Amino acid sequence: MSALDRNSVVAVVGAGTMGRGIAQVALLAGHRVLLHDAAPGQAGAAVEAVAGRLDHLVTKGRLADTARKAALDRLAAADGVGDLAGAGLAVEAVVEDLAVKQRLFAELEAVVGDGCLLATNTSSLSVTAVAGALRRPGRLVGLHFFNPAPLLPLVEVVAGAASDAEAVASAFDTAAAWGKTPVRCADTPGFLVNRVARPFYAEALRVYEERAADPATIDALLRECGGFAMGPFALMDLIGQDVNETVTRSVWEAFSHDPKFTPSLAQRRLVESGRLGRKSGRGWFSYGPGAAGAPEPHTAGPEAAPTFVTVRGDLGPARELVALAERSGIDVRRDPSRRSRGGESPGARGVVLLPAGTPLHLADGRPPGAPAVQFDLALDYRAATRIAIAPSGAVPADAVAQATGLFQALGKKVSVVADVPGMVVARTVAMLVDLAVDAVAKGVASREDVDTAMRSGVNYPLGPLEWGERISVSYVRELLDGLHAWYPTGRYAPCPELRRRAAVAENVISS
């Protein structure tokens, strides 16, 4: 099998937001589309809604009026499942209830031809289980679009345990022919994106629960320092706190309460209070007419830049700070008494000594309390507009001022946060890398598909595997080891494959 022939009919069952979006995608790809919904009148309303979307595209100059008319001629509502008998592909986008989906596919299997490909758009249920009630489960695959389907490029093509290779290939090729970016993944909890993305929300919530920083500051750091398009708190409000928490809880339960996926009590309380985000007018932030919106992130006041700093060893992922400091006019002195290499332990990593004598070092997972100032990991220290620093309780005020002034001299806003291991960006990126490495090791998806999915599906600035290599897997492993020592729950224990890769990298460096 290959991509579905343009002359084949696409049936979409479920005429809600996702069903309408999928119908629009198939329609503009040239197919005849039949929309069906069990609720009376819903399919007809969906046809009108899709027509309205096409009108909007014409108004915006993104679709020719002739193409709109041709597309509408190919779109119709179907009163019953029996009207879908001639479909070459049937995609369901109904409620996330296993029994409902199984009954629907049993009905479809009884009316469609043997060559019809069946696809479920489920985001949380097992594709294998959905297909379990079919006589021929091999022709059912997961075809998971992201909302809004017409705009977001990623489609996860999920192979259930019984899915035929030809069916998976056909679904993949069809999604590509529709202009989407398909990735293949195994039928595991959360599939690919919802599995790997959990730390982006979870670590932000953990930092908040530890009172290390407020939501607005955490969001600003992950945007302006980490390079993410949106902060996690604003994104949770956009998705819906109830929806986001449900996905987290379903993945956690499916993985037998693995501590890496433990839901947040703070988010549970938000959901219980009805503060669901944009749709309710209030979540972590306020929305709607007269709402204050997100508060300003914490930003330190101006401080004088130190006239000099002393660098010991290699700063690893933060080494470009040396050149930035020199260009800003700060006298950078190098202390040759200690050298380090990128693969060595955090304790041997380079540090910047402030004039007060206090060490300034990249967040590395070491527990708080040592007389030092940590600074957070950045996607690109040149482009970053904000940086977080975290002084331990033993650090004098003049050292905090010097650290603040140093980064301000480099053109960065500075947010002072509490001294927690891994800070904000560093622990988030490390956990994303760990889950991505684990997913590849367990055959969930290929390396290329993991990075493609996270860039295309959730708009990350880098794929987590590429990010891990950029900052070094040794740094990631050691940061997580430090976090695991401080929080010995298993949440931060590096996966075996990450440990193996770090060991290989260190052996290469030392040889």
Query: Total number of β-strand segments?
Result: 15
Helix content: 40-55%
Tally the structural domains: 4
CATH architecture of the largest domain: 3-Layer(aba) Sandwich
What is the CATH H-level superfamily of the largest domain? NAD(P)-binding Rossmann-like Domain
Structural class: alpha/beta
Task: Work out the oligomeric state of the chains in this entry.
Answer: single chain
Q: Segments where pLDDT lies below 50 for 5+ residues?
A: 339-347
Q: Characterize the biggest β-sheet.
A: 8 strands, mixed
- End-to-end C-alpha gap: 49 Å
Strand residues, percent: 5-15%
Overall pLDDT level? 93
How would you sum up the global shape? elongated
Q: Helical stretch count?
A: 19
Strand order, largest beta sheet: 3-2-1-4-5-6-7-8
- Report the CATH C-level class of the largest domain: Alpha Beta
**CATH topology name of the largest domain:** Rossmann fold
Radius of gyration: 26 Å
